[in-house]
Structures are given as C-alpha cells and as structure tokens.
C-alpha cells in the first residue's frame, strides 16, 4: 500500500473501538449529534470537497459548566492531488459522508466512573476533513477538479463558532487530539490559548501525535518526504510556528512535533506508545522499504518478530525517548505517558483510558496521570519499561 494514501483505511480498527467499549448494551453509549458551522463560508473554511466543517458538542454541567475540552479527530493525511481527491469522497474529506452521530467515550465520556476528571466539562469533537492536520490554506482547481485545502480556516471557524457558546469565558480548557489530530494539537496549542481569557487555565494534550522524523529500515526519510509534499500542496508552511520556522534551516520540519515542541509556550502533555503501530507500519517500515515483505508477519503479530526485527523496534523506542529527553528532564509544567503497548490512540477508547483492566505504568492509568497533570495534583511523567515487560498492555496490532 502506497504511503500517499495514508488515510482512513489504516484506521479501520480504531473506527470500531468505541463500539466495543460497553458490553452492557447500546443504551449506555453516549451519542452526540453533529453541528455544521454555517458561518464557515464567510471565512472560506471548507472541507476538501467544499462541504461545511463540523463538530459535536456535549454540554458540561455542575462544576464543569465553564470548562471546555476540545478533541481533534484523527485520520491520516493526503499529500498529492489523487490521494486528496480520493479523500474528498470519504468521511475524512467531507462532512457529507460522515456519521451524524458520534460515540463519546474515554476522555469524552460524561460518566464520572469512566472519566473522573473531565466528565462534566463541555466536550467537543472536531471533525477532520482537510487532510493536513487542520493547517493548510490553499485551493486547487484545474478546470475539472476542485479541492479546498483550508484546515487552518476550519480551525478558526470552529473556534469562532464556539466562543459565543461559552468557550469565550472558559475557566479551564484543554485542547486535545488523536493521531493526525494529536499532531494538530502541537500545531494549534498556543493559538488556542490566545482565544481564551487571560485568567483561564489552558493546557494541551496530544495522543499518538508525536510522529518522529525517523529514517525507515532502508535509511530513507519516507515520512519527511511525505510531509514535504503535504506542506507544499496544502500551503501549510505560513501556518507553522514562526519561532520554529525562523530557527530551522528547513522550515517544513516544524510540522514534526519534536521540532515544534520547544517553542510551545502552553503547558503540554504527550501521550504516546513507544511502539506506536502507525509509526511502526508507515514511518519505520513503510511498504516501500520492504518490497519483499519480510516484515509482514512481524507487523501482524509482534510475537512473530525475529531478534533482528525486535532490535530495530527497540531502537525506534530509544529514538523516541531521545527526542523527548529535554522535555522529560527539564520541563516542570509538562507531562507525559509513554507506554510500551503496540497500539495507536488511547484517550478516546474506554478500555485504555480508564477501566479496571486499563494499561498502567507504576500502577497509574492514563486518565489518572493526565488528571494529576492538569490539576497539578502529582508528578505526571511516566515512561514504561521496554517491550515485553508491561503485562497491562492492550496490543492492537
């Protein structure tokens, strides 16, 4: 499978996870209706196909009525006209093809037993339909096909729609996201803070969004090349962190979280697996680097990996921890949870966020660690031991 089609297909497994959360029956799931942003046209904020952007809002209550959690949806990217045209005809490029009701679970749950710290906040899921982690600002038209690369405007339109609905006087707020949405959190964290009251407590959380600038097993910069195409096509570079782009010789590298992170001023939490399966399959071992498919069995089942393959995977973990070393050692306001599970995205799924059998590091769940960090209750930097030591993992490979 070509890296240029990095999109919904790879995320089929994750689409179904929320439906597996609750064995007690459908009545226990929280389903939240879609809101189309009608004023988006005034900003020229359109999905790839020209449809209106959208979000799902579930109102807070009680002590959380003035607190807000915004969650970017994930779903890969597109970096050329063909893959973006294909995407524009799917639920990752058009609100016309999206489910109008979304399951809210994990960090989006309204049940204190499942989401003890954020259950009564206003919770928003921002739908993803631009293909560049909400960061592009361009348009393509060749007389036949029309594509809008307007992720930056979509972000702005949704924020402006939410401000008069209560976000504008938030007392506490957190911007979060999963996968490509987790990357969007790095890109928009400080901008989110700029919209909110000066006395608000604002923080950001990225789940499975720490995509590494890493050579693949053939020593090619496959992901760097992919992002270069995306940035050029979708007009992303002007929307990257200006302090970062003015510092690096190659400004487009600021799309990678490891280069943007030192310039983010808002408190930040990084939730990631050291063996993130998406990065394993598409950054470390993309199909282009394994034409004879020696890694197929290992990709499908980590217990089938041979010693050499396991050593390469351990090297990837070391590279991720090295990229995070300064963040871990020198930051006092930030948090992290780097576990050793072969998985991707853990905050929106109940059984990995907060449940009896959830993954744990030093006996702490992800939800407990994030809550301790946000509310400054405890030190919240956890790094797991290397695979296969963690017996609490939910491997989704």
Characterise this structure:
The protein is α/β, with parallel strands linked by helices and 397 residues long. It contains 14 helices and 12 strands. Strands 4-1-2-5-3-8-9-10-11-12 form a 10-stranded mixed β-sheet, with helices on both faces. A two-stranded antiparallel ribbon has the order 6-7. The protein is globular, with a radius of gyration of 20 Å.
Layout of secondary structure:
Layout: H1 12-16, E1 30-36, H2 40-43, E2 54-58, E3 67-72, H3 81-88, E4 101-104, E5 122-126, E6 138-141, E7 146-149, H4 151-162, E8 172-178, H5 180-195, E9 201-207, H6 222-234, H7 242-245, H8 257-260, E10 268-273, H9 277-284, H10 296-300, H11 307-323, H12 325-330, E11 335-339, H13 350-353, H14 366-374, E12 381-383
Parallel strand pairs: 3-5, 3-8, 8-9, 9-10, 10-11, 11-12
Antiparallel strand pairs: 1-2, 1-4, 2-5, 6-7
List keywords for this structure.
single chain, disordered N terminus, Pectin acetylesterase, 12 strands, two-stranded antiparallel sheet, alpha/beta, cell wall biogenesis/degradation, cell wall, 29% helix, signal, 397 residues
Q: How far is the N terminus from the C terminus?
A: 17 Å
Helix content: 25-40%
Radius of gyration: 20 Å
Strand count: 12
Q: Biggest sheet, in brief?
A: 10 strands, mixed
Keywords: Cell wall, Cell wall biogenesis/degradation, Hydrolase, Secreted, Signal
InterPro entries: PAE/NOTUM (IPR004963)
Main location: secreted
EC number: 3.1.1.-
């Amino acid at each position: 499978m070509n890296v240029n089609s990095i999109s919904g297909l790879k995320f089929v497994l994750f689409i179904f996870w929320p439906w597996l959360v609750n064995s007690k029956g459908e009545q226990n799931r929280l389903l939240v209706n879609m809101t189309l942003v009608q004023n988006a046209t005034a900003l020229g904020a359109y999905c790839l196909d020209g449809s209106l952007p959208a979000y799902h809002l579930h109102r807070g209550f009680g002590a959380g009525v003035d607190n807000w959690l915004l969650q970017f949806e994930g779903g890969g990217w597109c970096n050329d006209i063909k893959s973006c045209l294909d995407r524009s005809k799917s639920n990752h490029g058009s609100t016309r093809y999206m489910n109008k009701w979304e399951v809210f679970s994990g960090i989006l749950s309204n049940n204190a037993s499942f989401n003890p710290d954020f259950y009564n906040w206003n919770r928003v899921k921002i739908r993803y339909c631009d293909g560049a982690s909400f960061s592009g600002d361009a348009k393509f038209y060749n007389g036949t096909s029309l594509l809008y690369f307007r992720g930056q405007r979509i972000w702005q339109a949704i924020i402006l729609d939410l401000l008069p609905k209560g976000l504008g006087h938030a007392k506490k707020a957190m911007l979060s996201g999963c996968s490509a949405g987790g990357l969007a959190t790095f890109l928009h964290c400080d901008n989110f803070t700029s919209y909110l009251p000066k006395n608000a407590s604002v923080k950001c959380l990225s789940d499975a969004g720490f995509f590494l600038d890493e050579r693949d097993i053939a020593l090619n910069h496959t992901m760097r090349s992919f992002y270069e195409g995306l940035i050029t096509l979708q007009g992303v570079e002007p929307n990257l962190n200006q302090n970062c782009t003015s510092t690096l010789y190659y400004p487009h590298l600021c799309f990678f979280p490891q280069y943007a992170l030192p310039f983010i001023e808002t408190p930040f939490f990084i939730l990631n697996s050291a063996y993130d399966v998406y990065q394993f399959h598409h950054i470390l071992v993309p199909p282009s680097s394994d034409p004879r498919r020696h890694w197929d069995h290992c990709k499908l089942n980590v217990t089938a990996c041979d010693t050499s393959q396991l050593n390469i995977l351990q090297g990837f973990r070391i590279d991720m921890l090295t990229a995070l070393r300064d963040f871990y050692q020198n930051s006092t306001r930030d948090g992290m949870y780097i576990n050793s599970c072969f998985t991707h995205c853990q905050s929106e799924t109940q059984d990995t966020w907060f449940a009896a059998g959830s993954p744990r590091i030093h006996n702490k769940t992800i939800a407990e660690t994030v809550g301790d960090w946000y509310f400054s209750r405890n030190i919240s930097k956890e790094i797991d031991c290397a695979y296969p030591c963690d017996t609490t993992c939910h491997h989704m490979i």
